[in-house]
Design a protein that fits this description.
The protein has helices spanning 3-25, 30-58, 64-78, 92-99, 103-111. The protein is mostly helical. Helix 2 runs antiparallel to helix 3. It is elongated and about 45 Å long.
Length: 112
Amino acid sequence: MNTQIFLLLHLTSVILMAGVTFAALADPHPDKRRQFLMMSGTLSLLAVMSGFGLAGMMRIGFPGWVMVKVVCWLVLSGLTPVDLGGYYRPDPELAETAMRPSATLNAIIESL
């Protein structure tokens, strides 16, 4: 693939990930919260994959600024808040809902 495609994909996903993360921090309607979290995770994965793909295609190795971008990626990915009903004593039902949002994946896990 062309490096310009990877660059466009990377920049677009980073900008959208920042917007979705800040929108999730702005306390969206509870019905839309799950969509914000799914979009944030998907865009986060797309940003890191396109970024490392671009770095690999350009054969630049792993300079210091890449480490700074990885830290920024982790911060933006981790900023999306999740309500667990408390920090030290989370509500088990809320924690299970947040940690296992996919019904299909839950069925696969429970069949094991």
